[in-house]
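VOC family protein
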Amino acid sequence: MNIEKIHHTAIICSNYEKSKHFYVNILGLSIISEIYREERESYKLDLAVGEHGQIELFSFPHPPKRPSYPEAAGLRHLAFQVTDIEATVCELKEHGVSVEPIRIDSLTGKQFTFFQDPDGLPLELYEA
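Predicted structure tokens:
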């Protein structure tokens, strides 16, 4: 087996326009492609995360709510690496995004914090 990297993370949103605005206009991710799949009544928006990562943002009619919190079994959160966490937090707050206080990772000494997307999905900023 030769797994090289994570290619993408897929997210199903409850309000496509609201989530598209959040990921593109607030987080500043670039659109790779956007299609509407009429047979599925679903948008698929591919977003670039840096030079190598991607987020696939999907919309489906009436998706069920997320049944778990970050401490439940399964995917805990999605982390974005940033070079200046304080500046990034300020930008998020300017857009009305609630951000937890910045903490220090006791193992690495690096700064990190958490915030949520429009559907309450846990997102992390981690300063490299």
